[in-house]
Design brief:
single chain, about 475 residues
Length: about 475
């Protein structure tokens, strides 16, 4: 059989891996959108024919893993899309949000292309394509074996603790009468997530497709994440009288921030100031998190039993209305603004950063992975100037980085995730979803752990397995 890599190949976006069996069955693992600058052409063209795909299996709901599903449907795919129940619920809100955002973005892109005399780009998909996509979702919970087709491909999901419903995908594929075990890690979370359970061991595999986002990074020990957050809040909002702007992914990272602030409020430590969750998507995601608390870890479940709600405290304001969002910019008093997206590439957060980046009393705090070519990546890198909506702004606001909120395992945690495997039985280990330099470093670390056949596929590379 063959595996071909159509995204997240030597980069951290656009996850798409195509398995073609000896019988010709085509299984697409994830169908993610490429995010960041200069990715329009990659999102327009898959590199394969959508109507030839038989099945799609999703690892989790993040847009860089699901964001081109409606494009796939628009171009002719009509098969089942398998995922966990929370992933289906999150796709319901995230794909509709994505359709709205990319339509708005396309208007700006095509305006610039018209001025240059370039051909306008086609709309990737619309709300109707999203609704057709959602009808194709088939949900299966963790640890339940299911067949994609009769007696050829069996699949099981296991928990990776990355976001609500995130899963490693384990495929048993019969190839000329012999069963082959293939595991796709999806994105792997951290063992000490404040809300979700830790990543769990998975069955022995012959072929592993493993993420490597932080393949050359070890998260700094965070002795007290809440204390760090409280220090930044007090320094920005109390001492300097400024605003704290936090780009955060709408799923899990936003809820983890709310949970930390909820605890600080209950402990009487949080200053009396307004906290805004300015993201309709995050508000809907929080409701979905509440609905699926059976996936939470024991600590937060114990907290909820005592507190009643881990995502609500005095002076917390959930903002959906556009006019109310704009009014936050006119607010003269100190406050905390948490808004999507986490890489600051789209949504209301870009407006908040633009409106607050020139004030040295304000702080922009980055709490998760940011692609190097994203606005968040530029801020994290310490660039003196950044581009926002086509204009250049000097970075005068303070920039704070708190990686303890990262949803991605570092290299030690990824190695620990792989400890359940006997390296001698792994015939090939593919590294995806990582920058190439990081992947090279991670490859050397994995070789020291006994893995011998490690590949770092480039875009469109095909491998026989």
């Amino acid at each position: 059989m063959k595996i071909q890599f159509f995204g997240a190949a030597r980069r951290v976006t656009g996850s798409k891996h195509l398995i073609t069996t000896e019988k010709g069955t085509k299984v697409l693992l994830d169908c993610g959108m490429f995010q960041g600058i200069n990715t329009q052409d990659l999102n327009q063209n898959f590199g394969f024919k959508a109507n030839e795909i038989d099945f799609v299996v999703l690892s989790h709901a993040h847009i860089d893993h699901t964001g081109l599903l409606p494009r796939l449907v628009r171009k002719g795919f009509n098969g089942p899309i398998y995922c966990t129940p929370p992933t289906a619920d999150l796709c319901n809100i995230m794909l509709l949000d994505s359709a709205f955002i990319q339509q708005k973005d396309l208007e700006r892109i095509n305006e610039r292309r018209r001025k240059r005399g370039d051909e306008e780009l086609e709309l990737l998909y619309d709300e109707n394509d999203v609704r057709k996509t959602l009808e194709l979702l088939v949900t299966v919970d963790y640890h339940q074996d299911f067949w994609l087709n009769t007696d050829e491909i069996k699949v099981r999901f296991t928990d990776t603790g990355h976001i609500l419903g995130s899963a490693a995908v384990h495929l048993t594929i019969k190839d000329q009468g012999i069963e082959k075990q293939i595991t796709f890690s999806g994105d792997v979370g951290r063992p000490d997530d404040k809300i979700l359970r830790s990543p769990e061991p998975f069955p022995q595999a012959e072929v592993i497709i493993c993420e490597s986002t932080y393949g050359n990074r070890q998260h700094e020990p965070e002795p007290d994440m809440k204390a760090h957050l409280l220090r930044v809040v007090r320094d920005t909002c109390v001492t300097r009288g400024g605003k704290l702007i936090i780009p955060a992914f709408a799923i899990d990272r936003t809820q983890e921030l709310i949970y930390a602030l909820d605890q600080l409020a209950n402990e009487g430590l949080l200053p009396r100031l307004k906290v805004f969750i300015d993201s309709p998507l995050a508000i809907k995601a929080t409701s979905i998190m509440r609905k699926h608390d059976e996936y939470f870890n024991p600590d937060i479940l114990e907290y909820i039993e005592k507190d009643g709600d881990a995502f609500n405290f005095p002076n917390l304001h959930y903002v959906s209305d556009v006019q109310e969002s704009k009014a936050i910019n006119d607010l003269k008093e100190p406050c905390v603004i948490i808004s999507a997206s986490g890489m600051a590439e789209a949504g209301r957060i870009k407006h908040h950063i633009r409106n607050n980046i020139l004030n040295p009393d304000n702080t922009i705090m980055l709490v998760g992975y940011c692609s190097p070519d994203s606005l968040g990546g530029a801020l994290k890198r310490g660039d003196a100037e950044v581009r926002i909506f086509g204009e250049t702004y000097p970075v005068k606001a303070r920039v704070e980085v708190m990686d303890s909120f990262s949803a991605h395992a570092d290299y030690n945690e990824l190695i620990q995730f792989l400890k359940c495997q006997d390296p001698a039985q792994v015939k090939t280990l593919f590294l995806v979803h990582g920058e190439y330099d990081n992947q090279l470093a991670f490859k050397h670390r994995l070789e020291a752990e006994g893995f011998r056949h490690i590949e770092i596929p480039d875009q469109f590379t095909v491998f026989e397995v």
